Amino acid sequence: STRSPFLGWGVYHGSRKQNHLFICLGTDMKLALPSSLQNHYEMLRLLYTGCQVVHGNLEITHLQGTPDLSFLQGIVEVQGYVFISRVSVPVLPLDSLRIIRGSQLYNGSYSLAVLDNPGVRKLQLRSLTEVLLGGVYIRGNPQLCFPDPKKIDWKDIVGGQQLGKSMWLQSAAPYCKGCWGETATDCQTLTHIDCASGCMRCKGPKASDCCHVQCAAGCAGPKDSDCLACRHFNDSGTCKDNCPPPTVYDPMTYQSKPNPNKKFSFGATCVKQCPYNYLAMEVACTMVCPKYNHEVIIKQPDGQETQKCEKCEGDCPKGRGLHPLLILSCSALTHSPLFGPAHYTVISPPNPALSCFFTFVFLCFSVWFLTSFAVSSLSQVTFSLISLPCSFCEPVSLHLYVCVCVCVCVCVCVCVCVCL
Predict the structure, then answer these.
(1) With bands split at pLDDT 50, 70 and 90, how would you rate the model's confidence at 165?
(2) Which residue ranges does the record assign to the Receptor L-domain domain (predicted)?
(3) What is the DSSP string of 68-111?
């Protein structure tokens, strides 16, 4: 069977390859700076080089001069919102971005927010044809020529209810023309308002041009494998309502049996195995196990270890506190391309009653760690530690550490943490 060239068939996550779609993690910092301006640019470059699907938000902020932003050109899909602010770079090359899903919204309302960018002249969004949830907010960009927000037909991109939440409080600079850009390839592609009756998306005005109901952002043909993006889930290049379930019904035995083709949902993608640092639940990948579940590590026949959530038999295991001196290996940071390898020496009182409130000192042994944590503000430390899973709280796996850190020098910090 033939497959659409428009949809990836798997997942890249970190160093793990499953076919060729590269999923990377987004950010949730708004206008906070985790470090210096130069290190902030390096962080963005490391996060998004080779990235096609952003699992989270795409936040492009605090960029000046003429840095190379070509690493943004491959991004096709953003799960959360796109936020662009305080940028003075003339051109932002988001040429391939087709769909913004809006699973998380900026200020609770917007999937695309372009605010207060003094030097941006061109925002290359020629491929953007669908915003699933949330509105569009464009304001305070005095040099912006393309797109002219008032000359884009947003009804074709944003749903009717979401359109009412949108605000474009500016026109292009007076010497600019319309469309996404100045060339013939920059004309807006309409995939909704010009469709035949009954089409959600289409590639032309005829009834035969209708996309499959599972398509988002447009299509190249009528099949569920011809979509430019999936409305719900991408299963190896085919758009589906759900990922293949863990069990299937056998009509011969009148029983359910394990499905050898089962997959987990990871964002809007179906994966055979959850990416590193994610826990497998029955049908999805998660960062933290839900209530009445606990984390277990399963060793595969090939020697690889996978983490999953399992329901507790009886009461969930209780935290027993930390030993006075414990070396804690934090996989979330140890395997990060940004922070590199690091070790954390944890100092905790032996009293189990204080098992969820403790102080630790960490020493960093990596160039990336040192440059990223050349501490100038508290937020840059808490930003990196906020997502540590709390394995010592009661009950296990339900909480996160929240840490307040004071750094004595660039590589020794004392943190007071509490589980919430």
Answers:
(1) low
(2) 50-157
(3) --GGGTT--EESS-EEEEEE--SEEE-TT--EE--SS-BTTTEE
DSSP for 256-303 reads EEE-TT--EEETTEEESSPPTT-EE-SSBEESS--TTEEEEEEE-TTS
Residue 3, token pair as written in the block: 């497959």
pLDDT (tens digit per residue) in 320-360:
333 333 323 233 333 333 333 322 323 333 333 333 444 44
Say if residue 142's pLDDT is above 80.
yes
CA 312/CA 291 separation, integer angstroms: 9
* Per-residue pLDDT tens over the stretch 45-59: 999 999 999 999 999
Q: Which residue has the tokens 């991408």?
A: 234
CB 217 within 8 A of CB 228: yes
- The pLDDT, as a whole number, for residue 33 is 83
Place of tokens 């599972």: 214
- DSSP 3-state of 12: strand
CA-nearest of 287, 301, 314, 309 to 386 is 287
Residue tagged 């003094």 (tokens):
118
Give me the pLDDT at residue 170, please.
56
The two tokens of residue 352 are 């189990």
Report which DSSP code applies to 46: H
Based on C-alpha coordinates, what's the Rg of the chain?
24
Q: Is 15 exposed, middle or buried (0-12, 13-18, 19+ CB in 10 A)?
A: exposed
Reference 282, options 304, 258, 305, 301; nearest CA is 258
Provide the residue count of the chain.
Answer: 420
Look at 353 and 229; give whichever has higher pLDDT: 229
Show Cβ contacts of residue 313 under 8 Å, excluding neighbours closer than 6 positions.
none
Tokens 């930003």 belong to: 383
Of 296, 286, 328, the C-alpha closest to 396 is: 296
Distance CA 25, CA 245 (A): 25
For residue 367, the 8-state DSSP code is H
Whether pLDDT at 17 is above 80: no
To 5 degrees, how large is the angle CA 325–CA 328–CA 329?
Answer: 155
